[in-house]
Amino acid sequence: MTYNKKIYPVVLCAGVGKRMRSNFPKVLHFVLDKPMLWWVLRSFRGLIDSEPIVVVGKNKDLVSQYFADEKISYVVQNEPLGTAHALLCAYESLKVLSEEDYFLVMPGDMPLIKQNTIKNLCEMSELNNDITFITCNVDDPKGYGRIVRDKNNNFLRIIEEKDAKNDELRINEINVGIYLIKIALLKLLYNIENVNAQGEYYLTDLLEIALKNGHKIGTMEIFDQKEILGVNSQKDLLEAQGVAKRSVIEVHLNNGVQIFDINSTWIGPEVSISSGAKIMPSSVIYGKSKIGSSTIGPFSNIENSTIGDNCNVFYSVIRNSIIGSNVSVGPFSHIREQTVIYDNIRIGNFVELKKTQIESNSKVSHLSYLGDTTVGSNVNIGAGTITCNYDGFDKHRTTIEDDVFVGSDSILVAPVKLSKGSMIAAGSVITRDVPEDSLGIGRASQVNKAGWVKVFKSMKTKKKK
């Protein structure tokens, strides 16, 4: 989206987050399957062309490592001296700026903020306010800075809760912590003092200073109290989880997906599910998964995988894989990374697949492990079959061509190839390639010893006497 003025998004993430009681950076705590910072970045993604500036503290390496694939400019605030100081660090990091452009300033711990809210705030740049910030009237303003207005309802200042007097504590209009600030005003950051209970440089003081210097201050009120939830504790995080979870599920319900139990179902924000799909209880679908008109669950976990239409996945785990249409998976199957399963396939109970490709109309029905394997079409893998793909040093591939029948309890020692139409006798250990239309047998010949049992039992009975 294009605005008349250039807007630079700045996300403040340098806070220590002591109330989280965690050694992990607060903004990397997950809401569903994404860290809080991801949700904040998403709120303006597609609205603003400028590369986001993320102000971090000593946690820079952890944050930048997670977002390594995204274009983000990181600025380090070495000491947590407050939000005004954090913004000053961002301001000083940019060499060339037009004073008529804007900074969009957001906290990194507000994962529920909606993109439409940020869009509306960015459009306020057309009003040519020097500063516009978001407010909200809430039922319980505890923990937030209060908006102090004059008798004519004009903005006067923001008072932080720890510095507020009793009458100010009764104010229900709070500062959300999201600002659109004209860059010309950022020079006033140098005038902010840390004379307060925390000994920090408050960004909220910039508004009062700007007002005294005759600058135009505007507010934008929003009405969804859940949207502005700031996560400062594990309890807050749990609340944010619940709101985000319900919001994502409602999108899929409205798109025609049948979800049988919203309390036990978890779906990530990047998941795509086709109309007509059925999501059974206790199912988790995360990452960039794409689900066709299929039945998932109960008790199934899908991550970063594509599943076609008319599939049934129950009591199973699928990760980083592609499943075609008309495929049955489970119960208790584990489809691991880089597995591709084509159409009309049965993957049965207690089957594990890794880096395996299976062509259409094949079956792996019971108690099998196939790793680093290529399976053709119309293949039957008998119960208890495993591919020995690792020799202690390297991984090797097994190739099973079309129309092959592998008997139960077979061991295929890679690298090995079973050519088209071949058969493997049950209980075989196959170490060499099997030619086309041939029977591979790799087991000792059976010997029947007549009367041996009677002699054996007699000997054992005599020893006990």
TrEMBL record:
The keyword Magnesium applies. Keywords: Acyltransferase, Cell shape, Cell wall biogenesis/degradation, Cytoplasm, Magnesium, Metal-binding, Multifunctional enzyme, Nucleotidyltransferase, Peptidoglycan synthesis, Repeat, Transferase. Its EC number is 2.7.7.23, 2.3.1.157. Pathway: Nucleotide-sugar biosynthesis; UDP-N-acetyl-alpha-D-glucosamine biosynthesis; N-acetyl-alpha-D-glucosamine 1-phosphate from alpha-D-glucosamine 6-phosphate (route II): step 2/2; Bacterial outer membrane biogenesis; LPS lipid A biosynthesis; Nucleotide-sugar biosynthesis; UDP-N-acetyl-alpha-D-glucosamine biosynthesis; UDP-N-acetyl-alpha-D-glucosamine from N-acetyl-alpha-D-glucosamine 1-phosphate: step 1/1. Mg(2+) binds at residues 109, 232. Its cofactor is Mg(2+). The active site is at residue 366. UDP-N-acetyl-alpha-D-glucosamine binds at residues 26, 77, 82-83, 145, 160, 175, 232, 336, 354, 369, 380. It comes from the Bacteria. InterPro entries: Bifunctional_GlmU, GlmU-like, GlmU_C_LbH, GMPPB_C, Hexapep, MobA-like_NTP_Trfase, Nucleotide-diphossugar_trans, Trimer_LpxA-like_sf. Binds 1 Mg(2+) ion per subunit. GO terms for molecular function: glucosamine-1-phosphate N-acetyltransferase activity; magnesium ion binding; UDP-N-acetylglucosamine diphosphorylase activity. Residues 256-465 are annotated as: N-acetyltransferase. Residues 235-255 are annotated as: Linker. Acetyl-CoA binds at residues 383, 389-390, 408, 426, 443. Residues 10-135 form the MobA-like NTP transferase domain. In the C-terminal section; belongs to the transferase hexapeptide repeat family. In the N-terminal section; belongs to the N-acetylglucosamine-1-phosphate uridyltransferase family. Catalyzes the last two sequential reactions in the de novo biosynthetic pathway for UDP-N-acetylglucosamine (UDP-GlcNAc). The C-terminal domain catalyzes the transfer of acetyl group from acetyl coenzyme A to glucosamine-1-phosphate (GlcN-1-P) to produce N-acetylglucosamine-1-phosphate (GlcNAc-1-P), which is converted into UDP-GlcNAc by the transfer of uridine 5-monophosphate (from uridine 5-triphosphate), a reaction catalyzed by the N-terminal domain. This is Bifunctional protein GlmU. It comes from Thermodesulfobium acidiphilum. The gene is glmU.
